[in-house]
Amino acid sequence: MKICNFLKADHVFLDVSLPDKDDVLRFLADTGYEAGLVKNKKGLLDGLLRREGIMSTGVGNGIALPHAATPDVTDAAVLLVRLARPVDFDAIDNLPVDIVLALVLPEGQTHLHLQILAGLSRLCKNPEFLALIRLSQDSDTLWQALQALEEQMPFH
After folding, report:
1. 67 assigned to active site
2. Minimal CA–CA distance to 71: which of 47, 92, 96?
């Protein structure tokens, strides 16, 4: 599953200054709403907070994969946020997070949800993927580089 099918260039945000995890989640809800990905930003925020309440989506290595499925979403989407300064995300390795890859899904799409999370996880294990995110100067160039990287990667 190619993540760039769900991550659009205008859903890439670089060097966003946010003080903490809650503000990151609010930013995701606001951005998802403003981009037309969700009809109800409070519903998305509640879903993201509910998921974080179960267990942190800080997966280690400076990466967080927050995700929520809500009835207010019509199409699955990924938002990429590179934070200006890492924030504590209660990650499993106790390190702060500087890369946020958020997944917004329609409710009831469990199979798609798991496929996209698996694709994101696979990409996050690729050092080139992380370097592209951490070193890119602008969103469009980053998005194009991510597309090219996915084209080079074998998918099974």
Report:
1. yes
2. 47
pLDDT band of 131, cuts 50, 70, 90: very high
**Exactly one of 67, 111, 113, 156 is catalytic; which is it?**
67
Query: In terms of Cα–Cα distance, which of 51, 80, 98, 83 is closest to 145?
Result: 80
Of 96, 23, 16, 85, the C-alpha closest to 61 is: 96
| Whole-number pLDDT of residue 113 | 87
The pLDDT value recorded for residue 95 is 96
Using a 10 angstrom Cβ sphere, with 0-12 exposed, 13-18 middle and 19 or more buried, the burial of residue 144 is middle
Over residues 72-78, mean pLDDT:
90
> What are the φ/ψ torsions at residue 35 (nearest 5 degrees)?
-85, -5
